[in-house]
Amino acid sequence: MYPPITNNAIVSGNKSDLIKIILDGLSGEREVNGETYNGAMPGLRETSLSDDQIAGILSYIRTEKFGNAAEGITPEEVSALR
């Protein structure tokens, strides 16, 4: 139903793009690893989650625990885009 978070250029790629997706949501067709996905994810900009919590979630999914090896995201990076 939704694209995997492992081996996904959106997750392990540009930090700002991933932060914007989490804050503003995403809908419509996206191709990931040759598969087409069409779903909707609501944004978290107006939630009670803090910049620190969002940075923690994004950093966690960008790590080797999910088969990724990307750099973490800081609360300051989230705050700058919020």
Outline the structure in words.
The protein has a two-stranded antiparallel ribbon with strand order 1-2. The protein has one domain: Cytochrome c-like domain (Cytochrome Bc1 Complex, Chain D, domain 2). The chain is built from 4 helices and 2 strands; from the N terminus they run H-H-E-E-H-H. The radius of gyration is 12 Å and the shape is globular. The longest helix has 11 residues, at 51-61. The mean pLDDT is 92. A hairpin with a 2-residue loop joins strand 1 and strand 2. It has 82 residues and is an alpha+beta fold. Helix 3 (51-61) crosses helix 4 (75-81).
Give descriptors for this structure.
4 helices; alpha+beta; single chain; two-stranded antiparallel sheet; 2 strands; 82 residues; globular; Cytochrome Bc1 Complex, Chain D, domain 2
Kindly estimate the percentage of residues that lie in beta strands according to DSSP: 15-25%
Write out the CATH superfamily name: Cytochrome c-like domain
CATH architecture: Orthogonal Bundle
Counting copies of identical and different chains, the oligomeric state is single chain
Strand arrangement, major sheet: 1-2
H/E element sequence: HHEEHH
Domains counted in the coordinates: how many? 1
Q: What integer is the average pLDDT? A: 92
Q: How many DSSP helices?
A: 4
Q: Give me the CATH fold name.
A: Cytochrome Bc1 Complex, Chain D, domain 2
Number of strands: 2
Overall helicity: 25-40%
Strand-pairing-aware structural class: alpha+beta
Give the C-level CATH assignment: Mainly Alpha
Radius of gyration: 12 Å
Poorly predicted ranges:
none
Global outline: globular
